[in-house]
Amino acid sequence: xxxxxxxxxxxxxxxxxxxxxxxxxxxxxxxxxxxxxxxxxxxxxxxxxxxxxxxxxxxxxxxxxxxxxxxxxxxxxxxxxxxxxxxxxxxxxxxxxxxxxxxxxxxxxxxxxxxxxxxxxxxxxxxxxxxxxxxxxxxxxxxxxxxxxxxxxxxxxxxxxxxxxxxxxxxxxxxxxxxxxxxxxxxxxxxxxxxxxxxxxxxxxxxxxxxxxxxxxxxxxxxxxxxxxxxxxxxxxxxxxxxxxxxxxxxxxxxxxxxxxxxxxxxxxxxxxxxxxxxxxxxxxxxxxxxxxxxxxxxxxxxxxxxxxxxxxxxxxxxxxxxxxxxxxxxxxxxxxxxxxxxxxxxxxxxxxxxxxxxxxxxxxxxxxxxxxxxxxxxxxxxxxxxxxxx
Length: 391
Known about the structure:
Layout: E1 5-8, E2 13-17, E3 30-37, E4 45-47, E5 52-54, H1 56-60, E6 72-75, E7 84-87, E8 92-93, E9 97-102, H2 109-118, H3 120-124, H4 137-142, E10 144-147, H5 150-188, E11 198-199, E12 204-206, E13 217-221, E14 237-240, E15 245-247, E16 252-255, H6 260-263, E17 266-268, E18 278-280, E19 284-289, H7 295-302, H8 305-313, H9 326-330, E20 333-334, H10 339-379
Parallel strand pairs: 3-8, 4-7, 13-18
Antiparallel strand pairs: 1-10, 2-9, 3-5, 6-7, 6-9, 11-20, 12-19, 13-14, 15-18, 16-17, 16-19
Helix pairs in contact: 5-10
């Protein structure tokens, strides 16, 4: 058995640093060409782009600094403390990121990343502070890492990366397909040159009746699992039903409360078992196509900018707890959709959603396989040559 050796994270890095945040009062510091990462974007993932960017002036007038590609990034503050990511592009980060440049003569950066994924709870438990739990760079540098030889690290990382590569391919295909579907919907259904003569209620049932016996163990999709981008929820659980909005295949579910509505929390349901009814938050609105109408079309409506703006504009209630009602959603004005257009769009959107569903289910299975292999590979309990035919 190959000997594994204990190191500290700081011992295997050529550089450890945090970042910085340019002043938000200087508008010319933002929306430049330099990717700038916030810790909320760190979630055991690969970073190919960032939500925000900064300018050269923003970089030069803050403690932000360039981080090279293939650095390992660890979130240090708040809800994401201890989570890690791999920077796949050169980028900058805020001060809540601990950025590790791995010494390639000693360690494989992917192995270090997977080690940190496996040790998340242990690392996160070292966070201290009050309501805002914090790590710091010294805690991370002192954190122990057990490693085999570099060649064995590479073999282990290759296995796990192969799985994540396939998940990433599926994600990119799905993103492209969704963009195609949205463009098709915008052009053929919501063309801005066409008059709005129909109410959404003419095409759609809002919060239709679905039945689950109280106490029955059923699939539950919580608000936290509803995606802000993409059709497929990040996860689900099985719980005893005790209330909540109910839905079935063909339904679109969308958040109706702030800030989830503004953030775009929406999903299309097409992955349940036959005749299965699932449930989720009471803060969902369920859109169900009337007979003869295209159910997939309603998902792309829920992602349409004008529809989202309408829903947000019709929210009411106390500050911080505003929500839109189903009756207001029902009164959203749409163009009249001809049977010819409906047939054409339905066929295209159905095909798109089927591929997205199949890719998403495959990625879910692959993620489960990776998560099963991860602790056993990272401990040396399982050897690469014992699983080579599995991936």
